[in-house]
Write a structure and sequence with these properties.
single chain; 34% helix
Length: 241
Protein backbone atom coordinates (compact mmCIF):
# COMPACT_ATOMS: atom_id res chain seq x y z
CA UNK A 1 0.00 0.00 0.00
CA UNK A 2 2.83 2.37 0.85
CA UNK A 3 4.54 1.67 -2.46
CA UNK A 4 1.29 2.30 -4.32
CA UNK A 5 0.94 5.67 -2.55
CA UNK A 6 4.49 6.62 -3.48
CA UNK A 7 3.97 5.66 -7.13
CA UNK A 8 0.70 7.61 -7.28
CA UNK A 9 2.28 10.71 -5.77
CA UNK A 10 5.24 10.45 -8.16
CA UNK A 11 3.00 10.07 -11.21
CA UNK A 12 0.81 12.99 -10.16
CA UNK A 13 3.85 15.17 -9.48
CA UNK A 14 5.46 14.43 -12.84
CA UNK A 15 2.21 15.07 -14.72
CA UNK A 16 1.96 18.55 -13.18
CA UNK A 17 5.53 19.69 -13.81
CA UNK A 18 5.76 21.63 -17.08
CA UNK A 19 7.98 21.09 -20.07
CA UNK A 20 10.00 24.27 -20.42
CA UNK A 21 9.91 26.09 -23.77
CA UNK A 22 12.70 24.88 -26.05
CA UNK A 23 13.73 28.46 -26.82
CA UNK A 24 13.37 31.50 -24.57
CA UNK A 25 14.69 34.53 -26.46
CA UNK A 26 17.76 36.03 -24.83
CA UNK A 27 17.85 33.50 -21.99
CA UNK A 28 19.22 30.05 -21.32
CA UNK A 29 17.02 28.28 -18.78
CA UNK A 30 17.30 24.81 -17.26
CA UNK A 31 15.17 23.10 -14.61
CA UNK A 32 15.54 19.94 -12.56
CA UNK A 33 13.33 18.09 -10.10
CA UNK A 34 14.09 15.00 -8.05
CA UNK A 35 12.11 13.30 -5.27
CA UNK A 36 13.66 12.49 -1.92
CA UNK A 37 16.16 9.67 -1.67
CA UNK A 38 13.80 7.53 0.44
CA UNK A 39 10.98 7.84 -2.10
CA UNK A 40 8.46 9.19 0.42
CA UNK A 41 8.92 12.97 0.41
CA UNK A 42 7.38 13.84 -2.91
CA UNK A 43 4.78 16.20 -4.24
CA UNK A 44 5.47 19.70 -2.96
CA UNK A 45 8.01 21.35 -5.28
CA UNK A 46 7.37 22.95 -8.66
CA UNK A 47 8.88 25.29 -11.24
CA UNK A 48 7.64 27.04 -14.37
CA UNK A 49 8.86 29.34 -17.16
CA UNK A 50 6.90 30.88 -20.03
CA UNK A 51 6.83 33.90 -22.32
CA UNK A 52 4.45 36.74 -21.45
CA UNK A 53 2.32 38.49 -24.10
CA UNK A 54 4.69 41.50 -24.12
CA UNK A 55 7.83 39.39 -24.57
CA UNK A 56 9.03 39.24 -20.96
CA UNK A 57 9.72 35.81 -19.51
CA UNK A 58 7.96 34.76 -16.30
CA UNK A 59 9.82 32.28 -14.07
CA UNK A 60 8.73 30.78 -10.79
CA UNK A 61 9.74 28.14 -8.30
CA UNK A 62 7.86 27.05 -5.21
CA UNK A 63 7.16 24.49 -2.54
CA UNK A 64 3.74 23.51 -1.22
CA UNK A 65 3.28 22.17 2.28
CA UNK A 66 3.44 18.41 2.66
CA UNK A 67 4.88 15.45 0.79
CA UNK A 68 2.02 13.28 -0.43
CA UNK A 69 -0.74 13.09 -3.04
CA UNK A 70 -2.58 16.02 -1.46
CA UNK A 71 0.58 18.13 -1.69
CA UNK A 72 0.86 17.28 -5.40
CA UNK A 73 -2.76 18.28 -5.96
CA UNK A 74 -2.33 21.55 -4.07
CA UNK A 75 0.89 22.30 -5.95
CA UNK A 76 -1.06 21.89 -9.19
CA UNK A 77 -3.70 24.33 -8.00
CA UNK A 78 -1.12 26.96 -7.08
CA UNK A 79 0.86 26.63 -10.32
CA UNK A 80 -2.31 26.73 -12.43
CA UNK A 81 -3.57 29.80 -10.57
CA UNK A 82 -0.29 31.65 -11.15
CA UNK A 83 -0.25 30.64 -14.82
CA UNK A 84 -3.80 31.92 -15.26
CA UNK A 85 -3.26 35.24 -13.48
CA UNK A 86 0.21 36.14 -14.79
CA UNK A 87 -0.61 37.11 -18.42
CA UNK A 88 -3.01 39.76 -17.13
CA UNK A 89 -0.70 41.40 -14.58
CA UNK A 90 2.34 43.58 -15.38
CA UNK A 91 3.92 43.05 -11.95
CA UNK A 92 4.83 39.74 -10.28
CA UNK A 93 3.97 41.11 -6.83
CA UNK A 94 0.38 41.58 -7.98
CA UNK A 95 0.33 38.00 -9.25
CA UNK A 96 1.26 36.71 -5.80
CA UNK A 97 -1.25 39.05 -4.15
CA UNK A 98 -4.08 37.77 -6.32
CA UNK A 99 -2.97 34.14 -6.00
CA UNK A 100 -2.86 34.48 -2.23
CA UNK A 101 -6.38 35.90 -2.10
CA UNK A 102 -7.64 33.09 -4.32
CA UNK A 103 -6.12 30.41 -2.09
CA UNK A 104 -7.44 32.06 1.08
CA UNK A 105 -10.92 32.28 -0.47
CA UNK A 106 -10.72 28.57 -1.33
CA UNK A 107 -9.99 27.84 2.36
CA UNK A 108 -6.96 25.86 1.28
CA UNK A 109 -5.82 23.49 4.01
CA UNK A 110 -2.18 23.98 2.98
CA UNK A 111 0.18 26.84 2.15
CA UNK A 112 2.97 27.36 -0.37
CA UNK A 113 6.15 29.38 -0.68
CA UNK A 114 7.12 30.84 -4.04
CA UNK A 115 9.59 33.10 -5.80
CA UNK A 116 8.51 34.75 -9.04
CA UNK A 117 10.54 36.75 -11.58
CA UNK A 118 9.70 38.76 -14.67
CA UNK A 119 12.77 38.99 -16.91
CA UNK A 120 13.15 41.34 -19.88
CA UNK A 121 15.67 39.42 -22.01
CA UNK A 122 16.48 42.46 -24.16
CA UNK A 123 17.47 44.82 -21.37
CA UNK A 124 18.25 42.27 -18.68
CA UNK A 125 15.79 43.91 -16.29
CA UNK A 126 14.48 41.55 -13.59
CA UNK A 127 11.53 42.24 -11.32
CA UNK A 128 11.24 39.76 -8.48
CA UNK A 129 9.09 38.97 -5.46
CA UNK A 130 8.91 36.19 -2.90
CA UNK A 131 6.25 34.57 -0.76
CA UNK A 132 8.32 33.22 2.11
CA UNK A 133 10.66 31.34 -0.21
CA UNK A 134 14.40 30.62 -0.28
CA UNK A 135 16.57 33.57 -1.46
CA UNK A 136 18.01 33.75 -4.98
CA UNK A 137 21.62 32.99 -5.81
CA UNK A 138 23.48 35.22 -8.24
CA UNK A 139 26.59 33.70 -9.85
CA UNK A 140 29.19 35.17 -12.20
CA UNK A 141 31.66 33.91 -14.78
CA UNK A 142 34.57 35.01 -12.59
CA UNK A 143 33.56 32.39 -10.04
CA UNK A 144 31.99 34.75 -7.49
CA UNK A 145 28.50 34.50 -6.06
CA UNK A 146 26.16 36.23 -3.67
CA UNK A 147 22.75 35.75 -2.07
CA UNK A 148 19.87 38.05 -3.05
CA UNK A 149 16.90 38.09 -0.72
CA UNK A 150 13.86 39.50 -2.48
CA UNK A 151 11.13 41.54 -0.81
CA UNK A 152 7.67 40.05 -0.79
CA UNK A 153 5.46 38.72 1.98
CA UNK A 154 4.34 35.59 3.81
CA UNK A 155 3.66 32.20 2.29
CA UNK A 156 0.61 31.91 0.03
CA UNK A 157 -2.77 30.82 1.32
CA UNK A 158 -2.56 31.99 4.95
CA UNK A 159 -3.18 35.71 5.43
CA UNK A 160 -5.92 37.60 3.61
CA UNK A 161 -5.30 41.18 2.50
CA UNK A 162 -1.54 40.75 2.03
CA UNK A 163 0.15 43.06 -0.48
CA UNK A 164 3.42 41.60 -1.73
CA UNK A 165 6.43 43.79 -2.44
CA UNK A 166 8.92 43.52 -5.30
CA UNK A 167 12.22 44.94 -6.50
CA UNK A 168 13.85 45.50 -9.88
CA UNK A 169 17.49 44.87 -10.73
CA UNK A 170 19.60 44.12 -13.80
CA UNK A 171 20.83 40.69 -14.84
CA UNK A 172 24.14 41.64 -16.41
CA UNK A 173 25.71 39.66 -19.22
CA UNK A 174 28.03 37.07 -17.75
CA UNK A 175 25.77 36.49 -14.74
CA UNK A 176 23.14 33.89 -13.93
CA UNK A 177 20.42 33.43 -11.33
CA UNK A 178 19.80 30.21 -9.43
CA UNK A 179 16.34 29.52 -7.96
CA UNK A 180 16.04 26.52 -5.61
CA UNK A 181 13.66 24.94 -3.14
CA UNK A 182 14.68 24.41 0.47
CA UNK A 183 15.57 20.75 -0.03
CA UNK A 184 18.61 21.90 -2.03
CA UNK A 185 20.04 24.08 0.72
CA UNK A 186 18.71 22.68 4.01
CA UNK A 187 19.07 19.34 5.76
CA UNK A 188 19.67 17.73 9.16
CA UNK A 189 23.33 18.69 9.02
CA UNK A 190 23.03 21.81 6.87
CA UNK A 191 21.66 25.22 7.89
CA UNK A 192 19.99 27.46 5.32
CA UNK A 193 22.84 30.00 5.32
CA UNK A 194 25.51 27.32 4.97
CA UNK A 195 23.50 25.56 2.28
CA UNK A 196 23.03 28.74 0.26
CA UNK A 197 26.74 29.54 0.47
CA UNK A 198 27.63 25.98 -0.55
CA UNK A 199 25.23 25.95 -3.50
CA UNK A 200 26.35 29.41 -4.65
CA UNK A 201 30.04 28.46 -4.55
CA UNK A 202 29.38 25.23 -6.40
CA UNK A 203 27.25 26.89 -9.10
CA UNK A 204 29.67 29.79 -9.56
CA UNK A 205 32.58 27.39 -10.04
CA UNK A 206 30.58 25.46 -12.63
CA UNK A 207 29.81 28.72 -14.41
CA UNK A 208 33.47 29.70 -14.26
CA UNK A 209 34.38 26.32 -15.76
CA UNK A 210 32.27 27.17 -18.81
CA UNK A 211 29.32 24.86 -18.12
CA UNK A 212 25.93 25.76 -19.58
CA UNK A 213 22.69 26.12 -17.64
CA UNK A 214 21.80 22.44 -18.02
CA UNK A 215 25.13 21.26 -16.63
CA UNK A 216 25.04 23.81 -13.79
CA UNK A 217 21.58 22.57 -12.78
CA UNK A 218 22.84 18.98 -12.82
CA UNK A 219 25.84 19.83 -10.65
CA UNK A 220 23.68 21.60 -8.05
CA UNK A 221 21.18 18.75 -7.96
CA UNK A 222 23.82 16.04 -7.74
CA UNK A 223 25.47 17.81 -4.81
CA UNK A 224 22.13 18.13 -3.00
CA UNK A 225 21.37 14.46 -3.52
CA UNK A 226 24.78 13.41 -2.26
CA UNK A 227 24.50 15.26 1.08
CA UNK A 228 21.51 15.47 3.44
CA UNK A 229 18.94 14.94 0.70
CA UNK A 230 15.79 14.17 2.71
CA UNK A 231 13.32 16.44 0.91
CA UNK A 232 12.34 16.65 -2.72
CA UNK A 233 14.36 19.26 -4.59
CA UNK A 234 13.91 21.61 -7.54
CA UNK A 235 16.42 23.87 -9.31
CA UNK A 236 15.90 26.57 -11.93
CA UNK A 237 18.94 28.19 -13.61
CA UNK A 238 18.56 31.39 -15.65
CA UNK A 239 21.46 32.78 -17.70
CA UNK A 240 21.29 35.84 -19.91
CA UNK A 241 22.75 35.05 -23.34
Amino acid sequence: MQQARVELAAALQQSMLPTLPEHLPGLEVAARYRPSRDGLDIGGDWYDAFVMPGGAVALEIGDSQGHDVDASAFMGQVRTSIRTITPHEPEPATVLTRTNELLVTMNAARFASCTMLYVDPREGQVTGTSAGHVPLLCIREDGSSDIRELPGGPVLGVLSGTDYLEETFTLEEGTALIMVTDGVVEGPGLTLDAGLERAGTLAAQAFHDGLNAEAIADRILDAAVAVDHLDDVAVLVIRRT
